Amino acid sequence: MTEAILLVGGKGTRLRPLTVNTPKPMVPAAGVPFLTHQLARARAAGVEHIVLATSYLAEVFEPHFGDGSALGLSLEYVTEEEPLGTGGAIRNVASRLHSGPDDPVLIFNGDILTGLDIQALVATHSSSGADVSLHLTRVEDPRAFGLVPTDATGRVTAFLEKPQTPEEIVTDQINAGAYVFRRSVIDRIPAGRPVSVERETFPELLASGAHLQGMVDSTYWLDLGTPQAFVRGSADLVLGRAPSPAVPGRCGDRLVLPSARVAPDAKLTGGTVVGADAVVGEGARITGSTLLAGAVVEPGAVVTDSLIGAGARIGARTVLTGAVIGDGAQVGPDNELRDGIRIWCNATLPAGTVRFSSDQ
């Protein structure tokens, strides 16, 4: 396995305001853009050439990663002029692949944090002779996902999108967002129009008699589509619960980047990240949270399971729980923000306001 496609074109709507100025794969997790973790894990598994399928804010990827040589990779970038969906994005970059018709091509989504054994997925694909192999994982409540039942040999028997009734929930196995395609199958995806692999490509392949193989790997897996999940994923990377060779430091309760300033009596726990040039004031307590570059938490503030955007400021004694503060926002002292509240980029919240779950 030397080649992969990474789908990084989504708008990250559910992650706003984090994605107003930054595409979802470039939002920092454990001190570096999330995409860095995916690229590093792919390289560790033997992947050498990756094509990034970009769309939203496409211009930010190449200036950061360049040709990929710093990561030991060869990177190329293809931008969709109009959103093409997962299948359309895969087909749109096919001309940049070097693989022969029967060679395997790894494909993965830019918003999944996983401990998937990539080499095992490729080995399963090769040994089964499949046209497409899918990483499957098990979840307690599969209603928000696409179910993928398999037979006793692991061969996929159906695709069931987001079932709701008990009768529809025939398995706890879901599509975990990583695939190995036979190259010739990619070339069969219609070109020049939106295509969903989940709703169109996979069901049509199954109906045509193609061999789709599932591999259940129930190691760490997290869809980073919501702010709460993103904060949790970053903390899990710092704590060592989620594997990545790209975490810039040793795993532990906290990750403080070298240019950050943290008061000696501030308490950072639960996988908290303090980004470049960020400041944490005296007596502040921060648990399981992420401060992006240049953020400021003033003395006595208490921040739990929250994400504070680049250049944002949290006032003295303010309490945040499960909050997302957009880039450049100013939250005055003595506020209490809880229950998933989101404060928009560059918004200003006066001192002493008490607000709960509602977008700003």
Q: How much is the average pLDDT? A: 91
Total beta-strand segments: 31
Query: Any low-confidence stretches, pLDDT <50, length ≥5?
Result: none
Shape descriptor: elongated
Q: Into which percent range does the helicity of residues fall?
A: 10-25%
What oligomeric state is this?
single chain
Beta-strand percentage range: 25-35%
Spatial order of the strands in the main sheet? Answer: 5-4-1-6-11-8-12
Largest sheet: 7 strands, mixed
Q: From the alpha carbons, calculate the radius of gyration and give it in angstroms.
A: 21 Å
Describe this structure as you would to a colleague:
The protein has 360 residues and is an alpha/beta fold. The protein has helices at residues 34-44, 61-65, 85-92, 118-128, 183-186, 197-207, 227-239, and strands spanning 3-7, 28-29, 32-33, 49-54, 74-79, 104-109, 112-114, 132-138, 146-147, 160-161, 173-182, 212-216, 221-223, 254-256, 261-262, 267-269, 272-274, 279-280, 285-287, 290-291, 296-297, 302-304, 307-308, 313-314, 319-321, 324-325, 330-331, 336-337, 342-343, 348-349, 354-355. A hairpin with a 2-residue loop joins strand 2 and strand 3 (32-33). It is elongated.
